[in-house]
Structures
1.
Amino acid sequence: MNLQGILAIYIYEMNRSFRTLIQSLVSPVLSTMLYFIVFGSAIGSRMEMIDGVSYGAFIVPGLIMLTVQMQSVANASFGIYFPKFIGTTYELLSAPLSFIEIVIGYVGAAATKSFSIGIIILLTSNLFVHIDIIHPFFMIFFLLITCITFSLLGFIIGIISDNFEQLNIVPMLIITPLVFLGGSFYTINMLPEFWQNIALLNPAVYLISGFRWAFFGIGDVPIMTSVFTILTFTILCVLIIWRIFKTGYKIKT
Amino acid sequence: MNIIVSIKNLKKIYKNNLVAINNLNLDIFEGEIIALLGPNGAGKTTLISTICGLSSISSGSIKVKSFDVVDEYRKTREIIGLVPQELALEPFEKVINSIKFSRRLFGKKNDPIYLDNLLKKLHLFDKKNETIKSLSGGMKRRVLIAKALSHNPKILFLDEPTAGVDVELRKDMWDIIKELKKDGVTIILTTHYIEEAEMIADRIGIINNGDLLLVEEKQSLIKRMSIKTLKVNLKKSIAKIPNKLKSYKLKLDVTGNYFLYNYKTGLEKTGITSLLSDMSSIGMELQDIQTKQTSLEDIFVKIIKD
Ligand SMILES: Nc1ncnc2c1ncn2[C@@H]1O[C@H](COP(=O)(O)OP(=O)(O)O)[C@@H](O)[C@H]1O
Ligand SMILES: [Mg+2]
């Protein structure tokens, strides 16, 4: 195990985000605040309580999920795509590092970043509304595994992409709509029946529901379904990464 | 001499079925500078890439210090440094951070004293805290070398280190390479500048179309292959070469004022003495003689063409 090597990648990636602190931290926090002002305060003041939770508090878990999922994908995909783009992957490949170690370095850094963003959003939300977390440890676990899984997904996208367009297309066309429609701002049973069934096909629904359960003890689907969904997704990403490693796909010539 | 890199029956076929390396065998000796000479597309970069782990091996094997580069890649890569052909560097990073990063990637803890000395040796010390994008091309090339040396490797690969570098910097680069050799580093460099191979290499390998055409000590290569030309200026011009001198295969100039005689320096007898005595026996007087040495370039062109 080349621990120094993993650490080198991890620290390098973390430094890169400190260099671009505004972009990495301030901008997701700021945009969440805007969501919060629009949905939480302006619209929320006209909304009824949902299952005994004020609308302002209700959207907090969804907002965090939405942000960490998109941030994880964006950070991890860019993290590995950039060296490919400027040609510095030669160094990763010629170092005494296994592919798994490279993945740990990049995915670890991307997940750390989005996890921190999630926590910061939680803390800032707390300035607007009072939030009690019923299952704090589960909340941390669920946030962490979501960050890791979506960072794995981002890593895969970064490896496969040949240009910036491809890098953006999957997040833009698939992940953003799924996450937005995943129930960040409403519960599924607020939808007409037909759309409720469609919504249940969206994996993001299960994740947001699970995370909301950690906060308020309520969710659109049973909590075990949410746990099952995220773990399936994690395993799927790990398998794809394993496959990429085995075939040397798009990394080695 | 100890063999430090041993390449056996190496074949590399790219995914588009292009055969870039064709059954190549090569032993590299510890402490030598070997220059791999070949035109663009010959397979030089591919060869380096298979040794360093950037390219998969289609068949055959490569051993570095008796470790297999695929099965025991951690052991082989630990002692290898690679300077790539392209100036691939993260533009926004500081020089020192980039070098620290490289060292740690290779599993070594930061060592400020070693890295400072390295920067000094490469005349980069005053650029230590500059961002890479502010450096000139020659300086960037040095940063790449510093990165490759950051983990103190035993073997250094330099892929076209002086391509696109001006004359002065090229001389600098050669000095750096010679210094490294003194430190005991084995150096494998690729180039398509013959002059470069001639200046610094101990041995020269010539690659073309994925084949290693020959590997030989530079001196003996030049000696063996070298053809010298003797130019004989005559006192009185002649219309044709006399029959007595036919066997020397002389080339008479159209003016009839001089002829050329080719001979190999590697041979015991050059034939010059007998040519001169045969000339005087038929009463030909010479005014002046000159000799011209074939350059490595001529040899290179000849080998590639054959
Ligand atoms: N990734 C690749 N995929 C397919 N063909 C390649 C690849 N890299 C190099 N080649 C081809 O392999 C041959 C050898 O290339 P290369 O090793 O770069 O030569 P050199 O370094 O001697 O100029 C060339 O014909 C080149 O086009
Ligand atoms: Mg090349």
Note: The pocket of adenosine-5'-diphosphate (ligand 1) is lined by residues A 253; B 14, 16, 18, 20, 38, 40-46 (CB under 6 Å).
2.
Amino acid sequence: MKIIVAKKILKANDQLAEENRARFNQANVLVVNLLGSPGCGKTTLLEALLAKLDGRAAPAVIEGDLASSIDAERIEKLGVPVVQINTDGACHLDATMVAAACAEIDLDKIDLLIIENVGNLVCTAGFDLGEHLRIVILSVSEGDDKVPKYPTIFHKSDALVVTKTDLLPYSNFSVDRVITDMNRLAPKARILQISALTGEGVETLADWLANQCRRDGG
Amino acid sequence: MHELSIVDAMIKQVEREVRESGHDGHVVHLDIVIGRLSGVNVDSVRFAFDLLSPDTLLEQSDLRITESKAVCLCEACESRTEIDDFVAACPACGSEKITFEGGQDLFLDSIELVD
Ligand SMILES: Nc1nc2c(ncn2[C@@H]2O[C@H](COP(=O)(O)OP(=O)(O)OP(=O)(O)O)[C@@H](O)[C@H]2O)c(=O)[nH]1
Ligand SMILES: [Mg+2]
Ligand SMILES: [Zn+2]
């Protein structure tokens, strides 16, 4: 006999992601899923961003890594509530892990939750965590050809941050090429250029997120 | 290899569907749909399936994968071209003013059990 299912695979993850999102909405928390390859500068950007919020949003952070609590310790130093998830080898976070981590965070006390996903430009794309915004980071040192080479993640992102722009004078990286490629894959995505090292452009990202917190938070 | 977690979730989902249907027979055929632009690799799915299906209701099942197509929309020549992968330019006229539609599917279509 044949059973017609016609349901999404990862339905379990998607359902839990929707539950996460409902909880976040209820608590008026804007949730960002921060994606990018290992070492692209996710934590450094996060540190710079948190410093620039200037009380406009009450943030918390979830750090996803295969192992260690190195990144969580960096965030903790800034006095921001942080939970470290260790995936024990899994190459991406999923909605279950985020739900578990949220049990450690008082959602009523924050209005911005940033989730630093596992450093990976491929596997993280398919897993909805319950976020409102997906921001993908591409650093200058990775090269300007990455958008068409890892299209899925860029296609599914709401914003692209080109980071380490302080390195532009020392490389042949073409920001125009990245913008052209990104406009094709995700025409509605916002594109920002930032150097977390010099602080250039961080303000724009901080303003953008802080404004959305207020709007979504009503 | 996110395909491993995807296939793991899929096997659990199939076993649940079978249980909920009130049957407990072995799965003979399994039909799934994977979009061309979903970022899920068909070969990796097959590999993960061979790895994870033993000792489940899906052991030795025939996994049939349909790859759903995607379309490239061109602003310049207004054509709609079916594509197998993300492309950098319109296959019809070469313009880079293009966007993509579809090909994001990842779903379980049907399960066939032994009678
Ligand atoms: N020049 C320059 N270096 C940067 C910048 N941002 C980060 N880096 C350096 O890049 C390296 C990696 O930065 P991280 O922030 O740890 O990268 P990550 O993406 O969090 O790495 P994982 O969590 O391991 O995936 C560090 O040595 C940073 O100092 C930047 O804007 N400019
Ligand atoms: Mg990090
Ligand atoms: Zn065309």
Note: The helical segments of chain B are 2-20, 42-52.
